[in-house]
């Protein structure tokens, strides 16, 4: 009962562990800027709903229903620093002509016309500006009560500045879409596209309410970081559940098999396994603050490795070589996992630490139990005859050769996208969406707030001169010196003109507009003020801001790299994961082989037996490479990790020596 109590406690601790399903753990230090940009800057929280056509026509009725439901989830403006409202998941959705969600942002944009433009340099003469004001007055007189939000905006913005902001806000979406019935429509495919911005970075809790609403509409896909994160996190939950269930069933089935064979003591193999896995999960959570779902799913391999120690100890309890053999098997596996724990990839590092701790605790627990409770761990060996067949030596040699040459010739692929899971329809919608419009490469630069004014002014001027698309603070506001000059022109000439040319009733209607252009010039132009403007908040973090440049071809990409060395290509960032893995494995695999060979050499004291110890692993690799070749599949990261996890070169049974000797006789015939 005492043992069962320990097991129950440890399993409970694993069950209530802080599970992490985020994508942050995939990024090595060299790509942390990419992870940070996605979490800190709301410009990356934009996603797009893609709605498939119905009967060859845009599904406007479905779009309207989706719009109504998601409008209920739309949040107001979030805090200027964190960008997270902490309540509703959607910050903005652009799916009809109702501007209520954008009212505050558009109001700020309209009010700051005095910072962006000089009064005497606006398009057209002052009289034409007055004509626009009078035209807005006519529009206001024709508005119904249902258009209250637009009424409020028109009083502050008779010059329709809000339309220029909406144009800028759609700069990152393909330009081939047309606006129809309040949504974007692709003329070729008749798909509807609805931009929406979440109120926080990609997290399950943020995205789940939206996905629950979308489940009611067939043919609707969420394209973007939040959609991808939700698909992956959901699949991790499913995989973790299925792997845990299948692993438990297999383990219980194996124990029941031993019980049916008269080895009732096999039940006592379960507590040490549970203890080792529970302790490993607990320590990993202490070290990392949480444990990733993929780590737990991958850790099911620990059970298979750990229980080997117990089986070997139980079936060979009377042999003095038992724990020496166990020790060699443990060391070879532990060395492989420990070296891999130095990887640059945080997820791989956590996986290997979890696995290494698991087999360490398993080895130690089984040793102590077998040492101090020998009666509980004493099973009669099973007599299982492995059938022999003619030519088995040739087959083994062929597999070993395939394993050696396959390892040298295989083209390894370590693509971050291999970790990505999306339903086929969602994946197709994403590929279609990002194939729209001209092909372009996105470059991202994260700036510190120091000298932000000069940086943004330079970026704007540089991009305008070369006609390279730019999204950044400089695209919304000019330099501070220009802002001061612009505001002064409105405070004097602009204010005087409109006060003299508007009637009393007109001035009353457009009083918010007059207050904006006549206000005392602002003096404090610093970074904190920038962060308070809702139309700039997408590009601003705590003490940093982000800029984006879009290259249409290799020549523009070269110009961006030459002028902005700190700019990072998002396209190249995907390859950064692969580069980090190649860099790691370039030294890790040789180191693992050298150290394991030394361990085996000290144990066997003979080159022939050391080579024989590699036969099970090499033949297994050969079978694996043959299967991959026949299926025409590449060798990915998960495959490599699977091979390294079974790097338990010394099968921990005393009869292994006899098996090696049998192989040796075959090879010398």
List the helices and strands and how they pair.
Blueprint (H helix, E strand, L loop, with lengths): L1 H14 L3 E2 L11 H9 L5 E6 L8 H12 L18 E4 L9 H9 L1 H4 L9 H17 L5 H9 L4 H9 L8 E3 L2 E3 L6 E7 L5 H11 L5 E4 L1 H36 L9 H19 L2 E2 H6 L1 H16 L6 H19 L5 H27 L19 H18 L2 E2 L10 H11 L6 E8 L3 H15 L2 E3 L8 H22 L2 H6 L1 H8 L8 H6 L11 E8 L2 H10 L4 E2 H35 L2 H24 L4 E2 H9 L10 H13 L1
Parallel strand pairs: 1-8, 9-14
Antiparallel strand pairs: 2-6, 2-7, 3-6, 4-5, 5-6, 10-12, 10-13, 11-12
Helix pairs in contact: 1-11, 4-7, 9-10, 11-13, 11-15, 13-15, 14-15, 14-24, 16-25, 24-25, 25-27
How would you characterize this protein structure?
It contains 27 helices and 14 strands. The chain is an alpha+beta fold. The chain is elongated. The protein starts with a helix and ends with a helix.
């Amino acid at each position: 009962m005492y043992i069962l109590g320990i097991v129950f406690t440890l399993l409970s601790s694993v069950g209530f562990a802080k599970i992490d399903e985020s994508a942050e753990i995939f990024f090595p230090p060299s790509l942390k800027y990419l992870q940070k940009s996605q979490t800190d800057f709301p410009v990356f929280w934009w996603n797009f709903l893609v709605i498939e056509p119905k009967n060859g026509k845009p599904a406007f009725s479905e779009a309207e229903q989706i719009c109504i439901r998601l409008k209920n989830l739309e949040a107001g403006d979030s805090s200027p620093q964190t960008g997270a409202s902490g309540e509703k998941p959607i910050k903005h959705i652009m799916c009809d002509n109702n501007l209520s969600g954008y009212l505050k942002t558009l109001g700020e944009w309209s009010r700051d016309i005095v910072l962006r433009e000089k009064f005497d340099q606006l398009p057209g003469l002052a009289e034409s500006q007055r004509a626009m004001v009078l035209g807005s007055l006519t529009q206001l007189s024709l508005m119904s009560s249902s258009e209250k939000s637009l009424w409020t905006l028109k009083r502050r913005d008779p010059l329709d500045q809000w339309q220029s902001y909406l144009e800028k806000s759609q700069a990152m979406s393909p330009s081939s879409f047309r606006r129809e019935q309040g949504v974007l429509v692709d003329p070729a495919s008749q798909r509807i596209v609805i931009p929406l911005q979440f109120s926080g970075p990609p997290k399950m809790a943020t995205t789940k309410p939206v996905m629950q609403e979308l489940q009611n509409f067939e043919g609707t896909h969420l394209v973007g970081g939040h959609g991808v994160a939700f698909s992956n996190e959901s699949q991790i939950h499913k995989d973790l559940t299925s792997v845990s269930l299948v692993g438990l069933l297999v383990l219980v089935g194996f124990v029941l098999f031993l019980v049916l064979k008269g080895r009732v003591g096999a039940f006592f193999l379960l507590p040490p396994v549970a203890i080792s896995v529970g302790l490993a999960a607990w320590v990993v959570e202490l070290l990392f603050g949480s444990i990733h779902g993929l780590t737990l799913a991958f850790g099911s391999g620990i059970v298979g490795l750990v229980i080997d120690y117990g089986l070997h100890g139980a079936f060979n309890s009377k042999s003095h070589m038992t724990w020496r053999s166990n020790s060699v098997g443990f060391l070879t596996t532990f060395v492989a996992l420990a070296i891999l724990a130095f990887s640059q990839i945080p997820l791989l590092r956590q996986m290997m630490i979890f696995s290494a701790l698991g087999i360490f605790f398993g080895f130690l627990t089984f040793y102590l139990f077998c040492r101090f409770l020998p009666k509980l761990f004493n099973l009669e060996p099973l007599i299982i005859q492995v059938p022999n067949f003619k030519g088995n030596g040739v087959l083994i040699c062929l597999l070993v050769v395939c394993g050696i040459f396959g390892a040298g010739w295989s083209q390894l692929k370590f693509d971050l996208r291999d970790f990505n899971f999306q339903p086929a329809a969602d994946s197709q919608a994403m590929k279609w969406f990002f194939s729209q419009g001209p092909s372009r490469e996105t470059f991202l630069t994260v700036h510190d707030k120091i000298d932000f004014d000069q940086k943004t002014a330079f970026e704007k001027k540089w991009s305008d001169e070369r006609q390279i698309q730019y999204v950044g603070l400089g695209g919304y506001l000019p330099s501070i010196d220009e802002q001061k000059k612009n505001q002064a022109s409105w405070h004097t000439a602009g204010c005087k003109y409109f006060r003299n040319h508007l009637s009393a009733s007109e001035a009353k209607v457009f009083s918010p507009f007059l207050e904006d252009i006549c206000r005392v010039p602002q003096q404090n132009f610093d970074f904190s003020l920038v962060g308070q403007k809702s139309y700039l908040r997408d590009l601003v973090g705590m003490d940093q801001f982000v800029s984006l440049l879009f290259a249409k071809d290799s020549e523009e990409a070269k110009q961006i790299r030459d002028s902005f060395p700190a700019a990072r290509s998002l396209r190249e960032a995907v390859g950064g994961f692969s580069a980090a893995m190649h860099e790691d494995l370039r030294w890790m695999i040789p180191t693992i082989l050298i150290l394991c060979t030394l361990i085996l050499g000290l144990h066997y004291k003979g080159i022939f037996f050391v080579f024989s110890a590699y036969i099970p692993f090499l033949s297994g690799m050969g079978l694996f490479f043959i299967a991959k070749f026949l299926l025409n599949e590449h060798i990915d990261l998960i495959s490599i990790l699977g091979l390294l996890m079974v790097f338990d070169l010394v099968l921990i049974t005393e009869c292994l020596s006899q098996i090696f000797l049998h192989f040796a006789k075959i090879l010398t015939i």
